[in-house]
Amino acid sequence: MVRLLGRSGAGSSRHPSGSRAERAPDGARGAQGRRSARTPGGATARRLTRADPPDQGRFAALRSALTGRSVAGQVFVLQVVIVLLLVVAAVVALYLQARHDSTQEARNRSVAVAEAFANSPGTREALTNPDPTAVLQPRAEAARKATGVDFIVVMNTDGIRYTHPKPDRIGKKFVGNIAPALAGQTVVEEINGTIGRLVQAVVPIKADDGTVVGLVSAGITTANVGGAANRQLPLVLLAAAVGLALATAGTALVSRRLLRQTHGLGPHEMTRMYEHHDAVLHAVREGVLIVGDEGRLLLANDEAHRLLDLPEDAEGRHVLDLGLPADTADLLASGRMATDEVHLVKDRLLAVNQRPTDAEGGPPGSVATLRDSTELRALSGRAEAARERLNMLYDAGVGIGTSLDVTRTAEELAELAVPRFADFASVDLFDAVLGGGQPEASTVLRRTAVSGIRKDAPLYPVGRQITFVESSPQARSLRSGRPVLEPDLDLAPGWHAQDLERTAQVVGYGIHSLITVPLRAGTLLLGVVSFWRSEKPEPFDTEELALAEELVARAAVSIDNARRYTREHSMAVTLQRSLLPRSLPEQTALDIAYRYLPAQAGVGGDWFDVLPLSGARVALVVGDVVGHGLHAAATMGRLRTAVHNFSALDLPPDELLALLDELVGRIDQDETTEDGSAPVTGATCLYAIYDPVSRKCSIARAGHPPPALVRPDGGVEFPDVPTGLPLGLGGLPFETADLELAEGSRLVLYTDGLVEDRERDIDEGLDLLRGALERAGDSPEDTCRVVLETQLPNKPSDDVAQVPPDPAAVGEVRASVTRRLAEWGLDELTFTTELILSELVTNAIRYGADPIRVRVLFDRTLICEVFDSSSTSPHLRYAAMTDEGGRGLFLVAQLSERWGTRYTPEGKVIWAEQPLP
């Protein structure tokens, strides 16, 4: 047994009493003596013999040094690394220095050569020679060879070469930057040419007045400059080789000396032997027993003493006399092999492994290891339960809150808890939470979700409004904000007080334990969750109470997010609908149908409007603000208000879009966030003005989809309306397209949500829209779910007259209008209409310019319009008592319902509207 301990080291060992074992004779050593022996802890130590010859010892020392397994080897590796780092650093430094010196030398030489040749006598005069190449080429080649540069090129101010080392490149354009040289400066640049990396300089050839009349370029490759690094590199490498050789020799010498002093054992092997021996005997959490062939205990470590409760003098005694259980003592005394045999020793379950020590020629006996599996089995059960709980919490993180719907989120919580945690689960929320609002201080809740292993449980159904009594676990959870555990519902009078009949049914159904957890999101109480147990006989415990609290806490965040989203969505939809037109204004130019469908995933910024203008004209506008939510809806309202105001100015579509573009740009600047970034409030818009008299429709668009035109024959086309940038980007003007629409045509305006989505592009959407319009009937309501259709009515009655610039013509205008009003049956308006036209025509004759035209329109109102080619706008004012004039527009404003001025490309129109009797 003494030999067994000796083999765990490297040829020597001690008895338990401390005496040294006798070394085996050299003759007994052979192949077997070189085998690796296992220590009780599982370590392997190589046995060295003294029979190794000197040369073999030296080679072993060298191998040990080179492999780095000894101290000397580690020193050797460190020396090698240091030497290599020094060599690499020296080579890199030489290369960088050489490259810098070469580049600098190339720059200096190319500049000097180019300037010298440019300023040499005869160079400037040769440029005026009929054949500059004949004069300059020989000189340039001679100078190139004398100075050692790679090329000298003389060129004119257009970069055309007069000289070059390769004659076939003369007459071609110089490759390089000559602009600064044309300005009188010297240019030096590094390029990768066909002959390698080179530095070239370009200098100007100046006349006496300083004018640049030509250019000279000289270049040289950096490879032709320098060379010091190549001469120094061998010396550096030689020094490195010498250093490595000295390090190798010194390491081998130190390693051999250490091996001789330790009798063949290296420091690493000796250290490992000691560490493993100490770990086996004192540090490991397994008991180790060494039993001799006679059944006597030779060695027991500290853990074995603790597990078996051995006496202090156990070593040296027979294992049958140690007071161990019979089956354990018999196993240790028999020496047979055993693998994870479980033996009960007092209150511990020990897993015993035993192996004989003479399997590889060692001394007879056995080694046994003991492992306490009592805690392991308990821990494995708890670990499995903990793993399942972690999995459930992970699934809660990814499976709860997949939608922004409060009810669906509550259902996901109940479905996750059953059957993994509880047999039944119910979620009760305040009504305000379901609507997106903040819960009130009340105990009235609504059953939102129920999940269970069966469908016939006598719990409150979904949708039931519940008022929990003060003594119920749910009410206590809401009041305290903490979870409540009811381990036995049969013995819970506070819970029974909720509903005596129903609680009796619940207990009779087999539900016996309950956990209630309040749904808290910060300081808000959203509701309460109840977990019910029926199948498992054990009640809920405190660990499960903590798990329920964690599970509900994670779900509460998702429910609160859904609540906030519902609130914001409802507010945005309300705001958006309040900003959109509730009814269309009265007008007779168009028949209009519309549909507006807000987005389900988030309120957008789409809007439309119909705006009556002067002269029976109508403005149509449709737009879309980038983004969703309250910000988009609010921006939409601001833009719609701006369009209303700008349309009152009777501006052309392109000018109105320009004003909107400026407004959106200011909105972006004003709404800068705290971190300095501004939200992009960009928008698209299409603005159209339709004149029913001329059937002319002027359209301009800013990044908006083009309108669709349905011809009277049913054909559909998308008119070519120039596309401007979206509003807010600025920089480019907008353009207006004029369309003449035949009677019976339909104009369809829409936003991009109708023709674009993630699954198709706009071309496919336009094709689908075209097909829908071709299949639609004549009524706008037939296709209002997909488009906004417009059907033009009959042309309104009108009368147009040309007026000569003579005040006497006013009388003729009044007479003509009187006749027309009589034909229309509007005799009651004759007097006021004559006064209005007299004043407007007189002003046009006095202050306007030819031609002057008068138009009277019979529509919902009677409209009088006077056209002239002047752009001067009249102003309404109060005339003094002594003024002879100045009362005309005042009379027009008093007699008409509305009046105003709009500008046209030819001039202006002053109009006035009178209500019909």
Number of strands: 33
The major β-sheet equals: 6 strands, antiparallel
Mean pLDDT across every amino acid position: 77
Determine the N-to-C terminus distance: 132 Å
Total of DSSP H or I helical runs spanning 4+ residues: 23
The order of strands across the largest sheet is 14-13-12-17-16-15
Rg, Å, rounded = 51 Å
Share of residues in helices: 25-40%
- β-strand percent reads 15-25%
In the predicted model, the low-confidence regions spanning at least 5 consecutive residues are 1-54, 788-800, 879-885
Alpha-beta content class:
alpha+beta
Shape descriptor: flat
Protein name: SpoIIE family protein phosphatase
Keywords: ATP-binding, Cell membrane, Hydrolase, Kinase, Membrane, Nucleotide-binding, Phosphoprotein, Transferase, Transmembrane, Transmembrane helix, Two-component regulatory system
Main location: membrane
Membrane topology: Multi-pass membrane protein
Please describe the topology of this protein.
Elements (H helix, E strand, L loop, with lengths): L1 H7 L28 E2 L5 E2 L8 H14 L3 H49 L3 H4 L5 H16 L3 E5 L23 H4 L4 E7 L2 E11 L5 E10 L6 H34 L5 H17 L3 E6 L4 E4 L1 H7 L17 H9 L3 E8 L2 E9 L8 E8 L1 H26 L6 H12 L6 E6 L1 H4 L9 E9 L12 E3 L5 H8 L3 E3 L6 H4 L3 H10 L3 E9 L2 E10 L8 H38 L11 E2 L12 E8 L5 E8 L4 H18 L5 H18 L12 E9 L4 E7 L5 E3 L5 E2 L5 E2 L12 E4 L5 E3 L13 H14 L14 E2 L5 E7 L5 H16 L5 H18 L4 E7 L2 E8 L19 H8 L2 E7 L2 E9 L2
Parallel strand pairs: 22-25
Antiparallel strand pairs: 1-2, 3-6, 4-5, 5-6, 7-8, 7-11, 9-10, 10-11, 12-13, 12-17, 13-14, 15-16, 16-17, 18-28, 19-20, 20-21, 21-22, 22-26, 23-24, 23-27, 29-30, 30-31, 31-33, 32-33
Helix pairs in contact: 2-3, 2-7, 3-7, 11-12, 11-17, 12-17, 17-18, 18-19, 21-22, 22-23
